[in-house]
From TrEMBL, chain A:
Keyword Transmembrane on entry: yes
Name of the protein in question: DUF1468 domain-containing protein
DUF1468 domain: residues covered: 27-170
TM stretches of this protein: 25-47, 59-76, 111-136, 148-169
Keywords: Membrane, Transmembrane, Transmembrane helix
Keyword Transport attributed: no
InterPro entries reported in the protein's UniProt record: DUF1468
Pfam families from the UniProt entry: TctB
Organism: Actinophytocola xanthii
UniProtKB/TrEMBL annotation, chain B:
Transmembrane segments: 20-39, 45-69, 109-132, 144-162, 167-184, 204-223, 353-372, 392-422, 466-486
InterPro entries: DUF112_TM (IPR002823)
Species per Swiss-Prot/TrEMBL record: Actinophytocola xanthii
The DUF112 domain, residue ranges: 20-438
Keywords: Membrane, Transmembrane, Transmembrane helix
Keyword Transmembrane attached: yes
Protein name per its UniProtKB record: Tripartite tricarboxylate transporter TctA
Length: 178, 501
């Protein structure tokens, strides 16, 4: 429908000149870095052997890399002219609120804890840590109910997937004992 | 009628007690996950993928069909009772549906949506039965240049037609294409963007990308801006329709598929445009035009039936050409690939038992959906009160299960997290997620087709445009790309903004 507007709703794009407003340029940097990375990697691919057909494995990465650079510049131009990407709305999203980095960091920690622990302690424990940690990060403070739900959920999931559905998950020492 | 006998065989597969049970579980799980606020059908399907990993392909596909329709229906329940649609296809439903619920007609709104889904899916799936073999028959003659052209069209359409900003759409697409490059080049076996890592040599699994962008990205994004007083869902009783309501809804139900199915079937689809069109049509045709904006039942019945039929239309292109045009279809294609099944024109020949079993279970799933969900609607609506910390903790929990189950490697969890951060940034800065998912799925396929075409023409670029079909498609691509320019030369139409109500 709105195919011609490079900018978001103009009412929203009222320029308040500050870096916070321009943080979208970070996306341009990301695209730029990706583009350079793809190009460097593409140039390094040796093509003197195993080449089949006129187009080797380099061509597409080079096109993608160049396009990444072009889009990075176009997006930067759009942002500097006052264009803003519209943040996604949702049931539980309060766009008026400032970004709550503490919650995001705690949530990330809970997620990464699972990745670290799953090999050592097994799925039932590490996933319970993930659930409890994530619930805590998001503001739940029921110190009895939360861990109970977490434990029940992860043990039930383990039994369901590993036992019934035939999807192996690491049991870890806990399941070795039970 | 060859396809009729095959369809009957398909019903034979779908109606065995085990498969019927799987379909019912799929419908219930799909609705359960889809009703949860913040979870759209695409995320529901992505999160439930691991449930089917241990099953036979046919059983998995049957369960999937249930999950698919259940997830869609669940989404419309959320948008009616909470007024905050999770997916573009239910944006329109929320307009009238929530007004109805506020005026104490939530039961009727839910019934109009449920039956609308049923009618749309029935007609849409019937059209799929009739159309898909024909399209597959035609598509057998398509060559590499044709496929490449259609994929380019899908890329351009999904970035230009949907969403508000083209630059951001293309940025998202390119991110997806870059992720798709990671791994060994399929033709020569040389590694690209693997940075010497053995794990990356296999490429990044599409399921991990989808779960990361949809589930982890969404959780992080919501966490960063969590609304501390969640919206209050409107309590609702058992859905039913009086005779007056039936008189008002049966025509919108039947009109919906006429609009929805064709839009779903063209590779520029999505349910956004057809549902808005349906809304505008019903508004124009209704004898209760004054009620629009304050809870007109036609405004729920029409768009819901349209959305459902459009989903069936999407399956035509997905099954016969291997082209997904919605996020949900993209995740379904990923599911097919998990089983080593490559949708395309040959699918109907090689895997005919599977395809017809799937199509039959679409019918079965639709019936189950109606039978199970009308009585269970009050139960589902209670799910809307789930404490948000548990909801998003649960999403992350199952996202990890899904990513880990792909191959049982911790590195997949880390990749999932990085892609989740990407999804977070994309949501924050208004980069649409769908082009990225499409880029990951179709990028490698498009590259193969292009290189094959150029191989045949010995490197001459004319090899990409040596068929009438591909030239036509490129003309369409050019029109879509140049539309903003072309429009300046066209006489200005009256601004027809259907949502202006």
């Amino acid at each position: 429908m709105t195919t011609n507007t490079e900018t978001a709703d103009p009412a929203e794009a009222r320029p308040r000149r500050s870096w916070r407003d321009r943080s979208e340029l970070g996306i341009c940097v990301l695209l730029l870095v990706l583009g350079v990375l793809v190009l460097i990697d593409a140039i390094r691919i040796p093509t003197d052997f195993t080449q089949r057909g006129p187009v080797g494995p380099k061509a597409v990465p080079i096109v993608v890399g160049v396009l990444l650079l072009v889009i990075a510049v176009l997006l930067a131009r759009d942002v500097l002219r006052g264009g803003r990407g519209e943040s996604e709305t949702g049931e539980d999203v309060d766009l008026a609120a400032p970004t709550d980095w503490r919650t995001v960091l705690l949530l990330s920690a809970a997620f990464l804890a699972n990745a670290v622990l799953i090999g050592v302690l097994g799925f039932p424990i590490s996933a319970a840590v993930l659930f409890w940690g994530a619930a805590y990060a998001l503001g739940s403070r029921a110190y009895v109910r939360d861990p109970l739900i977490a434990a029940a959920l992860s043990i039930a999931t383990y039994l369901l997937f590993d036992g019934l559905l035939g999807v192996p998950l690491p049991g870890g020492p806990l399941m070795g004992v039970l | 009628m060859d396809s009729l006998t095959q369809l009957i065989d398909g019903f034979g597969t779908a109606l065995t007690p085990t498969n019927l049970l799987l379909a019912a579980i799929g419908v219930l799980l799909g609705t359960f996950i889809g009703v949860l606020p913040g979870i759209g059908p695409a995320m529901a399907v992505a999160l439930l993928l691991p449930v089917t990993y241990g099953l036979e392909p046919i059983a998995a596909m049957i369960m999937f069909a249930g999950i698919y329709y259940g997830g869609m229906f669940g989404g419309s329940t959320t948008s009616i009772l909470l007024n905050t649609p999770g997916e573009s296809s239910s944006v329109v439903t929320a307009i009238e549906g929530n007004q109805m619920a506020k005026r104490g007609r939530g039961s009727q709104a839910l019934a109009a949506a449920a039956i609308g889904h049923f009618v749309g899916a029935m007609i849409g799936t019937t059209a799929l039965v009739l159309l898909a073999p024909v399209v597959a028959g035609l598509a057998v003659d398509l060559g590499a240049p044709d496929y490449f052209a259609v994929m380019i069209l899908a890329f351009v359409a999904v970035t230009s037609v949907l969403g508000r900003s083209r630059v951001r759409g293309f940025a998202s697409l390119l991110i997806g294409l870059t992720i798709g490059l990671v791994g060994l080049d399929e033709m020569t076996g040389q590694s690209r963007l693997t940075f010497g890592s053995l794990q990356l040599a296999d490429g990044i699994d599409v399921v991990i990308v989808a779960v990361g962008l949809f589930a982890v990205g969404e959780s992080l994004w919501v966490a960063s801006r969590l609304r501390h007083q969640p919206g209050e869902p409107i309590p609702v009783g058992r859905p039913w329709l009086g005779s007056e309501d039936l008189r008002r809804t049966w025509k919108p139900w039947l009109r919906g598929p006429l609009i929805g199915f064709p839009f779903g079937a063209i590779p520029a689809g999505g349910a956004e445009i057809p549902t808005f069109l349906s809304y505008a049509t019903e508004k124009r045709l209704s004898r209760h035009r004054d009620e629009f904006g304050s809870g007109a039942i036609e405004g729920v019945a029409g768009p819901e039936s349209t959305a459902s039929a459009s989903a069936s239309g999407t399956l035509v292109t997905m099954l016969t050409l291997g082209l997904p045009t919605t996020a949900t279809a993209a995740v379904m294609l990923a599911a097919f690939q998990q089983y080593g099944i490559q949708p395309g024109p040959l699918l109907f020949e090689r895997e005919s038992a599977l395809v017809w079993g799937l199509i039959a279970s679409l019918f079965v799933g639709t019936v189950l959906l109606l039978v199970l969900n009308l009585p269970m609607a009050p139960v589902w609506s209670k799910l809307l009160r789930i404490p948000r910390p548990y909801l998003y903790a649960g999403i992350l929990f199952f996202a990890s299960v899904g990513a880990y189950a792909v191959s049982g490697q911790v590195v997949d969890l880390l990749v999932l997290f990085v892609i989740g951060l990407l999804g977070f940034a994309m949501r924050r800065y208004g980069l649409p997620v769908l082009p990225a998912v499409l880029g990951v799925i179709l990028g490698p396929a498009a590259e193969q087709q292009m290189r094959r075409a150029l191989q045949l023409s010995d490197g001459s670029l004319s090899g990409l445009v040596n068929t009438a079909f591909s030239v036509t498609v490129y003309l369409v691509v050019a029109v879509v790309l140049l539309w903003p320019l072309l429009r300046r030369f066209l006489p200005r139409r009256r601004a027809a903004e259907p949502a202006g109500a």
